[in-house]
Design a protein that fits this description.
Mean pLDDT: 91
Structural class: alpha/beta
Low-confidence stretches: 285-293
Strand order of the largest sheet: 1-2-3-4
Shape: globular
Distance between the termini: 52 Å
Helix content: 40-55%
Length: 293
């Protein structure tokens, strides 16, 4: 079920176009399921070989010991110019901040970025992070990391049970240690198709289940002149519609239990809605023979 970056195609494009025409390579060390995080080591070695800058998207990665270990190894064996991670995803602060990290004393990139918004950028993100880290302390943060790792297996087991009860399955994305995905194909209605599944996301949000993403795999978007089919699904024509969510830092056993219970209840309610829509659609499409005459 996992979506994996085509490393060989990246290398082929560099060979075809010439390394001097490539501004940078962007890979991801942390992402939403069903995508598997990239092999940063291979990309770092590729960047070193061709002397092309490498920027790593490390969205959730700070809370994963494995991810951070892989990044450290990649920087030692190859070229890593910058690593970008979200403050809210990794440090439990309000949305709106990110950390740009560089390695081996390479401060030129940070200096350049910091000059883009002199005197205009808000300091609230820095302030929130500073206060939160002081409150947690090193021991507190490390304890949260350990608890998250312990919750991952518990989370998977309970989601698997809910999925089976609804005729769905937890997608096999073992290479992603933070994000999970649940298939939704049996909830597709004949009247609204895959697009109708987006309503499920709204129902979960109204029940205080934030951070979930319903991916219909049919949404089309144009970004920077590039057309995307199945926007949000990491690739065109991904075969399964799904709901993704994360086992992120700060999650507790009671919160997993609450989420699983609400998810189960919401799926039952949504299936009833789908059945009602199908019933109404069937009645509208049916025309008695005498009426037609």
């Amino acid at each position: 079920d996992e979506v994996v970056a085509d490393f060989e195609e990246v290398q082929r494009q560099i060979d075809t176009r010439g390394a001097h025409t490539i501004m940078a390579i962007v890979c991801t060390a942390s992402c939403f399921a069903p995508r598997r995080p990239d092999n940063v080591m291979k990309f770092a070695e590729l960047s070193q070989k061709y002397q092309v800058p490498l920027i790593v998207n490390n969205a959730y990665g700070c809370q994963s010991r494995i991810t951070m270990k892989n990044l450290t190894s990649a920087a030692r064996r190859g070229r890593v110019d910058g690593i970008i991670q979200s403050t809210d995803k990794n440090f439990m602060v309000p949305v709106g901040g990110a950390i740009l990290a560089t390695l081996n004393g390479n401060n030129a990139l940070v200096d350049s970025v910091s000059k883009l918004y002199p005197g205009r950028a808000s300091c609230s993100a820095v302030q929130d992070l500073f206060i939160t880290l002081l409150s947690m302390g090193e021991a507190g943060y490390l304890s949260l990391l350990k608890e998250r790792e312990e919750m991952l297996g518990y989370f998977k087991t309970h989601i698997h049970t809910v999925a089976a009860a609804h005729g769905e399955r937890l997608l096999d994305t073992s290479g992603n240690g933070i994000s999970l995905a649940l298939s939704l194909d049996s909830f597709i209605s004949t009247s609204k198709g895959r697009e109708g599944l987006s309503q499920l996301g709204g129902m979960l949000f109204s029940r205080a289940c934030s951070g979930t993403r319903v991916v219909t795999c049919v949404k089309k978007e144009t970004v920077g002149g590039m057309n995307f089919v199945g926007y949000g699904a990491h690739m065109d024509n991904y075969p399964v519609t799904y709901l993704s969510f994360a086992c992120a830092i700060g999650i507790t056993k009671s919160e997993v239990d609450t989420f699983v219970a609400r998810l189960d209840k919401t799926l039952k309610e949504f299936r009833k809605k789908v059945a009602t829509m199908e019933s109404k659609s069937g009645k509208e499409d049916f025309t008695p023979l005498d009426a037609a005459a």
